[in-house]
Amino acid sequence: MRRWPVIVVAAAALGALSGAAAYQNIAPRQGEQKDEQQGEQKGSWQEIAWSFPRDGWPAGRAFHCRGASCGGGIEVYVRPKLGFCNCDRGVADDDEVDRVADVDLISQYFVPLAPGEVVQIADMAGRTRAYDLKPSDGSRRVVIGIAVSRRCDLLVAVAHGKGDAWETRRAALALLVTREMTRWMMAAMEGR
Hints:
single chain; about 30% strand; 8 strands; 6 helices; alpha+beta; 8-stranded antiparallel beta sheet; Protein Transport Mog1p, Chain A
């Protein structure tokens, strides 16, 4: 019977700590919103819930940007796919980006706009590619698929918005190279 008060206090403390951690992760950090070279506001990135059903991979992190520099609204979803990459070549071509970058989570109906481009995020190399997509509501949206690798592991991101492909890609990559995201991606790629 003496254990119940201890259990209740421990549960309340854990709840308070996790609530504080969630608030801290959602609120944009002032130092990470400024472009260090130009001092411009990058936009208001806010962490949102992972909105896709469970599949064979764990849910990742999701963000929404509302600033004018984000083309009026962009969402970015990023997650690791451990053990899902060609260990010798990494992300070598556009077909692999098409296959792994989670674009199909946004819509099954996507068409590449152009050949992809090589990209480097933290210590991971890979490719990025832009797609035009036709959602069921008939509106036009642009989607950017990003797939980078380290050893035999993938980190994938998909960004979508109503703006043009170049602006959506620029905003998504700016988010992914922030200090906080780089730390999280490195930890996620190590399975932590």
